[in-house]
Amino acid sequence: MRATHASIGYRLKLDPKVTADQRGRGVGVAIEEYAKTSVKDRAVAAKKLEEAVLGKEKIVSMPARKAS
User: Fold this and answer.
1) Residue 6: exposed, middle, or buried by beta-carbon count in 10 A (0-12, 13-18, 19+)?
2) Using CA atoms, how far apart are residues 19 and 8, in angstroms rounded to an integer?
3) Rg (CA), the chain
4) I need a labelling partner for 31 at 20 to 30 A (CA). Which of 7, 13, 53, 65 fits?
């Protein structure tokens, strides 16, 4: 029940301290042990990282190469 409660609270973006208090555990335990991310959440995170690394959002620009 604690894992379900933590995961639903995480998905609803509820305050982690409040939901941890409801379960009678600390926030660290709540996040590390109980809250599970969904496949969709992981896919969105992977897509954002991919865009940052491969193109859509440039983090670092490389200097132009000189033609030899």
Assistant:
1) buried
2) 10
3) 19
4) 53
